[in-house]
């Protein structure tokens, strides 16, 4: 095998076509609402980690569990990258009518791209938080929030951080 590209071979590299039942799709006996997605800091140095917080509210009549998922999207990259990449997830139990604030850490390594070695590149990124993948055709009954952040500095090998 000489062609190791994943283009057209896995859901992460299908271009604009989304899978019919993507990761995170499923049934629930309650509904959830996401709000107050905060990225800190919104502008960070090339080797820094990103802190993320989001509020998850159970708006239904029953207690329930939600798998909160964070996806990262590169706005521009020097090499082909996935449409979005799962960078964190957590299963959370939330009683009916209650809310919880969740905190995540997105490490610099999770922004690295493969260009003969793992490299960190500056630029603008979008982070998605929700109970499903962003841009789904078949949607679960919860939304996906998004926010952008910027990475500054010169591109460098990951091992240089």
TrEMBL record:
SUPFAM superfamilies in the record: Beta-D-glucan exohydrolase, C-terminal domain
InterPro entries found in the cross-reference section: Cellulose_deg_GH3, Fn3-like, Glyco_hydro_3_C_sf, Ig-like_fold
Q: Which UniProt key words apply to this protein?
A: Hydrolase
EC number(s) recorded for this UniProt protein: 3.2.1.21
What are the residue boundaries of the Fibronectin type III-like domain, all occurrences included? 66-133
Q: Which GO terms describe its molecular function?
A: beta-glucosidase activity
Q: Does the keyword S-adenosyl-L-methionine apply?
A: no
A Pfam family: Fn3-like
Any GO BP annotation: carbohydrate metabolic process
- What Gene3D superfamilies does this protein's entry cite? Glycoside hydrolase family 3 C-terminal domain, Immunoglobulins
**Reaction equation(s) it catalyzes:** Hydrolysis of terminal, non-reducing beta-D-glucosyl residues with release of beta-D-glucose
Is Hydrolase found in the keyword set?
yes
Stored PANTHER family = BETA-GLUCOSIDASE (PTHR42715)
Q: Which family does it belong to?
A: Belongs to the glycosyl hydrolase 3 family.
User: What is the protein's name according to its record?
Assistant: beta-glucosidase
Source organism per UniProt: Rynchops niger (Black skimmer)
């Amino acid at each position: 095998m000489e062609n190791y590209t994943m283009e057209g071979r896995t859901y992460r590299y299908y271009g604009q076509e989304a899978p019919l039942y993507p990761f995170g799709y499923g049934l629930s006996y309650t509904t959830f609402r996401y709000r107050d997605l905060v990225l800190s800091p919104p502008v960070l140095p090339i080797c820094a980690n990103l802190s993320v917080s989001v509020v998850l509210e159970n708006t239904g009549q029953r207690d329930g569990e939600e798998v909160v998922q964070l996806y990262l999207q590169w706005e521009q990259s020097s090499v082909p990258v996935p449409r979005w990449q799962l960078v964190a997830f957590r299963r959370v139990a939330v009683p009916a009518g209650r809310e919880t604030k969740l905190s995540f850490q997105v490490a610099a390594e999770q922004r690295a791209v493969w260009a003969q070695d793992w490299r960190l590149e500056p630029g603008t990124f979008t982070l998605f938080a929700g109970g499903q993948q962003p841009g789904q055709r078949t949607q679960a009954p919860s939304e996906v929030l998004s926010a952008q952040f910027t990475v500054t500095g010169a591109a460098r090998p990951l091992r240089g951080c």
